[in-house]
Amino acid sequence: MIACTTATPRATLGNSNAHRTFKFRSSRSRALNLVPLTSKWSSQVAVLGGKALPLKLRSWSQDSAVRQCKAARPVSAHASAAVADSGDPLEATRFSGQVKGIILGSGLCLLLCNMCRVCMSVAIIPLGAEYGWTPSTMGIIQASFLYGYMATQILGGVLADKVGGKVVMTVGVTCFASATCILPLAMSAKAVTLGAVVPLVVAFRFLTGIGQGVTMPSMNSLVARHVAPALRARAIGGIFAGFHGGTLVGLVLSPIVMSLYGWRSLFYLYAALALPIMLLWQAAVPVHTPAPGAPAGASSPLAMLSKPGVWAPIAANFVNHWGYFTYLNWMPAYFNQVLGFNLQASTLFSFLPWLSMSVMSYVAGWIADWLVNSGVERSRVRKLVQSVAFLGPACALAPLATTQDPGVALGCFTIALAAQSFSQAGYLANMPEIAPKRTGQLFGICNTVGSLAGILATTTAGIIIEKTGSWVLVFQTMVGVYLTGVVLFNWLCTSEKLVD
């Protein structure tokens, strides 16, 4: 390992830029020479014991050279957490194999989350017909998932920061996959005779929500601890491409599976996918330990709320979930009621908007990281991309109040969801910046509020449609929520570290 001291560099500078040599003394008293690779000021190598180590110098100052020498040191697995929290963009160049494993594993886990979430939204129509459920009963069943999902957000974040996101994610996926598998088994003839079908379905959907509630905080805690700051937006974007891909796959695959093998097979299939995903998760994702120097018991979830900047991602998550759950639960109904499509056509018509959201999640992260690495202040980048995420849908939804053209409606929803995907590079990437060692806890708080927004949004839309029979007020309400979110986030957002 190379350890550089702050010895004064010796340089030989002439009129030409072609020959410069710097010398440092290592902790073992060996000379470290910085020898030029080219005539450019930014390309140098460090020569130690006959071995060349590439360095990238941004200036010829002593501080710059010393920092680059430190960057050339081998980094142990235990030091990776410190690298992720350092905040120095010089530490980040590209994804390591470890980070790629986190992105792939987390993306697949969240893909399965959304597939198991969406399957009930598709299956509830034939289930309602088979068991004679009323619309209010179906609403209770759908809401039971969200109540379970909301219940474990903060707990999942606290546990992820303490024992590691890998462990908590494993427990969460095991829980919701098991509940998904057992649900059709519980709906037996005996349960029908006892009148226990609805309570059992509510219970197992609640358990599904309980398991899924810890997955998001676990993912964000892993990203904060293992991914360098200048790469986090891309990492989160890649993971959320999988998350939104789960909605896409679930909406398209579920009707096909049900038509071929019945609704029970849908739950068995999605639950069975947890096994290969968990095997990959265990192999690809590193064991997560608390960051060195993290003060035990500091910055409790409630203590975070005293920081105004913490309320920026909380408010943004509320707005994001208001829109997300409205699209998820009501977009097929809009295509059916307003445009006259049948259920299968409505589901397939939702394909393009969710596809755009999945693809643009990574694109948004790439754009945000490019801006940060180009020297734009992080807080300005977060505000910019989050403004796109909220102003885009606000503008796209406006024509839906006056049109019944399927092509226009599809274009509006596609633009709205594509724009909203920029939230992954906005408030989601902001959380590890303001609370690098408590990201799981902060995400738990945000997603608890977001789950409440999902319940309120879904209920509000249903009441408006039932009372007025018009979708105009639904879209106007969403536009108002989006505009409020833009104002609050730009007012409160900061990228400075706020929570120890």
UniProtKB/TrEMBL annotation:
One of its GO terms (cellular component) is plastid. GO terms for molecular function: phosphate transmembrane transporter activity. It is a multi-pass membrane protein. InterPro entries: MFS, MFS_dom, MFS_Na/Anion_cotransporter, MFS_trans_sf. Residues 102-497 form the Major facilitator superfamily (MFS) profile domain. Gene3D superfamilies: MFS general substrate transporter like domains. The keyword Electron transport does not apply. The keyword Transmembrane applies. It comes from Cymbomonas tetramitiformis. This is Major facilitator superfamily (MFS) profile domain-containing protein. It holds the Pfam family MFS_1. The chain crosses the membrane at residues 102-127, 167-186, 192-214, 235-261, 267-289, 310-331, 408-430, 442-465, 471-493. Keywords: Membrane, Transmembrane, Transmembrane helix. Belongs to the major facilitator superfamily. Sodium/anion cotransporter (TC 2.A.1.14) family. It is found in: Membrane.
